[in-house]
Amino acid sequence: VEDLPPLLTGFEAAARERLEPGPLSYYASGAGAEITLRENVEAWERLRLAPRMLVGVETRDLSTTLLGRPRPHPLVTAPMAFMRLAHPDGELGLARAAAATGTPFTLATLANTSQEQLAAGGAETSRWFQVYVFRDRGVTDALVEAAAEHGFEALVLTVDLPVVGLRETDVTLGYELPADMPIPALEGLNAGGGQTLAASLSVIDPGLRWSDLELLADGPLPVIVKGVLRPDDARHAIDHGAAAVVVSNHGGRQLDTVLPTADALPPIVDEVGGEIDVLVDGGIRRGTDVLKAVALGARGVLVGRPLLWGLTVGGEAGARRVLELLLEDLDRSLALAGSPRLSDLVESLLAN
Ligand SMILES: Cc1cc2nc3c(=O)[nH]c(=O)nc-3n(C[C@H](O)[C@H](O)[C@H](O)COP(=O)(O)O)c2cc1C
Questions:
Q1: By three-state DSSP, how is residue 223 classified?
Q2: 302 contact partners, CB below 8 Å, separation of at least 6
Q3: Residues 223 and 256: beta-carbon distance below 8 Å
Q4: Amino acid 1: pLDDT
Q5: Number of H helices, E strands in the chain
Q6: Ligand 1 and 303: CB distance under 6 A
Q7: Which residues are catalytically annotated?
Q8: Ligand 1 site, residue 78, Cβ cutoff 6 A
Q9: What is the reported pLDDT for 157?
């Protein structure tokens, strides 16, 4: 733990040195010319703050409410596949890091760890299950049912991957998943390790429609729709039973040149923010990014790649340090912005 980088930015540099080219490309790359990948980060950076002075910030409060439950802060771990490419601790490592910091953990359908293993793994925190709907609906139905049985709190239905985006460095490298790497959700399907990353995603049904959301929302768990970029789609999500939406472009990994999430968020908050929770992800790298997202109306903020860098560098301890550094930075940013309570953040803190 002593030799972990002291700054958030240090983790990415250290992880890039440590990872083999194939896994590094899978984690780091975006689709196409990686315009959206870059602009996700830049769009938060571009927003300017207009802080208040002399309001007394000796006591700070990061707490909020998400899916109707009180939470110590607005962070959530983004669903990400294949965490054992980062570190043998894999999903359990990140889940325990999440538990240590009061962060809900999202298990991906394409995780290397099963729902059972996660539920039994001592990571006592809110668990969400990310759903990819497979062509073989029986497999998906079983996973959804098992998620409820294993105490998951919500489903996260990813709607922006009907087919896989063209991630060019992955194609160039032709990297194949280790044949012995477990992907529990794919057992029984003719898919899994020993094939390219894109091939492992070809089990996903490109025929998904809003009516399928309705079926899922009729089940016992609330459904969070992840991957919405337009106000009218956020409205469709509500109309078909969603409990929340995540404004997301899949970290710039799907359709390149879509708008960055910081730009997509405000009109979606205007349309549906009064009715359901709006969350956001993509390019969140610092406390100021989280502060800006919440000031623009996001109730929750998902963190993606920075956690993979933490996991790569130090397993569970590395991921935990990344979450702690991000929360410390958020706390400091609230003090400096003159808005000591996160729930009091208002859009007028932004100067643009
Ligand atoms: C390596 C990697 C794997 C991912 N796998 C999934 C996945 O299985 N399901 C999903 O809904 N999103 C997946 N995502 C997207 C993330 O949930 C999230 O939307 C994105 O990473 C946020 O952007 P950020 O990495 O800039 O924080 C993945 C992202 C990365 C980087």
A1: strand
A2: 75, 76, 77, 78, 106, 246, 248, 279, 280, 281, 284
A3: no
A4: 55
A5: 13, 10
A6: yes
A7: 250
A8: yes
A9: 98
Residue 250 Cα, ligand 1 centroid: separation in angstroms? Answer: 5
Q: Token pair of 168, please?
A: 């060019």
How much distance in Å is there from the Cα of 80 to the middle of ligand 1?
5
Q: Whose CA is nearest to atom 15 of ligand 1?
A: 250
Instruction: Indicate if ligand 1 lies below 6 Å from the C-beta of 286.
Output: no
User: In angstroms, rounded to a whole number, what is the distance separating the alpha carbons of residues 49 and 265?
Assistant: 17
Residue 79 Cβ contacting ligand 1 at under 6 Å:
yes
Note the pLDDT of residue 93.
98
- pLDDT score for 2: 60
The Cα–Cα gap between 9 and 252 comes to 19
Q: Is any ligand 1 atom within 6 A of the Cβ of residue 24?
A: no
- Taking the centre of ligand 1 as the mean of its atom positions, its distance from the CA of residue 304, in whole angstroms, is 6
Give the mean pLDDT per block of 10 residues along the chain (352 residues): 89 98 98 98 98 98 98 98 98 98 98 96 93 97 97 98 96 93 90 82 96 98 98 98 99 98 98 98 98 98 99 98 98 98 96 82
- Nearest-CA residue for ligand 1 atom 4 is 80
- Tell me what pLDDT residue 269 has: 98
3-class DSSP state of 280 = strand
**Is residue 283 within 6 Å of ligand 1 at its C-beta?**
yes
> Angle at the Cα of 302 (from 261 to 272), degrees rounded to 5?
55
Give the nearest ligand 1 atom to 28 CA: 31
Strand partners, 244: 224, 277
On whether the CB atoms of residues 91 and 82 are closer than 8 A, the answer is: no
Q: Which residues pair with 158 in a beta bridge?
A: 226
β-pairing verdict for 75-77 and 244-247? unpaired
pTM of the model: 0.98
For 117-122, the CB contacts below 8 A with 24+ separation are 117/92, 117/184, 118/91, 118/92, 118/150, 119/150, 119/151, 121/92, 121/95, 121/96, 122/96
Ligand 1 centroid – CA 270 distance (Å): 25
CA nearest neighbour of 284 among 269, 298, 274, 272: 298
